[in-house]
Amino acid sequence: MTTYYSEEHEWLEVDGDTATLGITKHAAEALGEIVFVELKEAGDTFDKDDEIGVVESVKAASELYAPLAGEVTEANSTLEDNPGSVNEDPEGNAWFYKIKIADVSELESLMDDAAYKAFIA
Amino acid sequence: MTEPQKTPLYDLHVELGGKMVDFAGWMMPVNYALGVAGEHKQCREKAALFDVSHMGQVELRGENIAEKLETIAPSAFTKLPENKARYTFFTNPDGGIMDDLIVANAGDHFFVVVNASMRDQDINHMRGLDLAVVELDRALIAIQGPAAEAVVSAVAPVAAELKFMETTIADLFGAECRISRLGYTGEDGYEISIPNARVVDITREFLKHQDLEMAGLGARDSLRLEAGLCLYGNDIDNGTSPVEAQLNWAMQKRRREEGGFPGAERIQRELAEGPARKLCGIKPEGRAPARRGVEVADKDGNVIGSISSGGFGPTYGGPVSMGYIATEFAEPGTEVDLLIRGKAMPATIIKLPFVQQNYKR
To answer: Do B280 and B349 meet the contact criterion of CB atoms below 8 Å apart?
Structure first.
């Protein structure tokens, strides 16, 4: 399994053509205390850059944009009841989606761990 | 763009981990390590210290100050007792609100505090009054919350004797300060005007109290919103009248009847006939916050108003909003829809505030 990162501060843990998607620790910290999460449902498909969710903190609302095209196979519904978990464990239990990737070649446009660390430095 | 200004507490904010942003031309802390919600709860449960030095502090000196102020503001000042403060606003000829402010009778002068963003406008406006208008170069801190009295009176015992909206001069660690028992969080507390040269060490002294923590603009906004207090530029502005904004209580009976202030024609008409729209509390039924600009619709989908301020209320424990609603839908209990991201989300009109004010009267 390889982890990729987007410039929109999402992480993707990829296994073949499936992936788990969430927002990075850096993003969660920048947003502040998260009070609301709105998610797509299993079966929803999306293109790269489509809005695939909303995250609201005490400060502002932020949209979540798809880093590549795919289909939601599972949404983490626990986030809607416990949005604060995104601050606690953004790169673990507070993942947003399990997805099926439409075209794995789109992963090439994403960053690896070292590149993302440099991106946010 | 000119460089944002810094208050005398800027370096201390940075040292204490404040996340600094440009607000109305001033570099101010949004929050510290505790975070917006933590600082908000700190203020409701114990006490929080806010730097509000970006606000304008002005002394008015001369003859007949109260009478002259009454020509630009619809509140009554001629019988305002010495050492009493009053919330008021300047109105424009159309009956809209130019700014809201606090005016105190300080004996031989009046002491005025205006919003940071409206500082220059307000000072120019008061300069038309044939009074000496002296802008003070002093710091201003607010200590707010149920423990504020203990925190401040430990240093200045006179603070405990003040009632809500009373003001006095007192010695704080050897500095002559003006302590006023008021604020904008809905909690009991004080605003303290302090010489610039002393504000850092006095703030550090206060912070030694175990019940006091620093809080930033983020918490200040969620606190005032829960308390149903208007933010200039959001809930009130040059287009909104004080009657629409439900601020009739700040226009005393004599002024309402006699008029004699800018925009009296509209304001008196709205007092007699009722305004076409009213500022209301709006409680979203779901968890999604409804922020400024969100449209409000009736259950048939007709737009009946919009949100002027909204966010998450940490003490209320859910989203809280205020907005202007057509009067026929403004009755508490009315069910409406919020048009958020293209979806209709149910909400209910409520009577403000969301969290009861806790002043020491």
So the answer is: yes
Q: Provide the number of CB pairs (under 8 Å) joining chain A to chain B.
A: 41
Q: Say which of A56, A58, A83 has its CB closest to residue B222.
A: A58
If asked whether residues B211 and B287 sit together in one domain, one would say: no
Whether residue B2 has pLDDT greater than 80:
no
Q: What does the pLDDT average to over B57-74?
A: 98
Task: Tell which phi-psi region holds residue B261, choosing left (phi > 0), alpha (psi between -120 and 50) or beta.
Answer: beta
Q: How far apart are CA B20 and CA A33, in angstroms?
A: 17
Contacting residues of B for A33, CB less than 8 Å apart: 35-38
- Nearest chain B residue (CA) to A59: B218
Using a 10 angstrom Cβ sphere, with 0-12 exposed, 13-18 middle and 19 or more buried, the burial of residue B40 is buried
Which token pair is B103?
Answer: 């005016």
Instruction: Say yes or no: B289 contacts chain A, CB-CB below 8 A.
Output: yes
pLDDT of B330 above 80: yes
Among B39, B312, B316, which would you mutate to test the A interface (most chain A Cβ atoms within 10 Å of its Cβ)?
Answer: B312
* pLDDT tens track for A22-59: 999 999 998 989 999 999 999 999 999 999 999 999 88
The dihedral built from the CA positions of residue B68, B74, B79 and B80, taken in this order, carries a sign that is negative
How many structural domains comprise chain B? 2
Q: Are residues B142 and B220 in the same domain?
A: yes
* Domain finish residue from B198, B226, B254: B226
% of chain B residues with pLDDT over 90: 97
State which residues form the domain around B168. 5-56+137-226
Domains of chain A by residue range: 2-104
Cβ B289–A36 below 8 Å, yes or no?
yes
From residue A26, how far is each of A90, B41, B233, B273, B344 by CA, in Å?
Answer: 9, 25, 32, 54, 32
Same domain? B288 vs B359: yes
In a domain, residue B171? The reply is yes
Q: What angle do CA B75, B77, B80 make, to 5 degrees?
A: 125
**CATH code, domain carrying B330:** 2.40.30.110
Question: Which residue of A41, A55, A58 is the best one to mutate when testing the B interface, meaning the one whose CB has the most B CBs within 10 A?
Answer: A58
State residue B141's pLDDT score. 98
Q: Does domain A2-104 have CATH number 2.60.40.10?
A: no
Nearest to A58 among B287, B311, B341 (CB): B311
In the predicted structure, residue A86 carries a pLDDT above the cut 80: yes
Q: What is the pLDDT of residues B259-306, one digit of tens each?
A: 999 999 999 999 999 999 999 999 999 989 999 999 999 999 999 999
Q: Answer yes or no: is pLDDT of B200 > 70.
A: yes
Q: Could you say which of B35, B289, B319 has the minimum Cβ distance to residue A32?
A: B35
Q: Is residue B169 part of a domain?
A: yes
Contact B312 A56 (CB under 8 A): yes
- Do B40 and B150 have their domain in common? yes
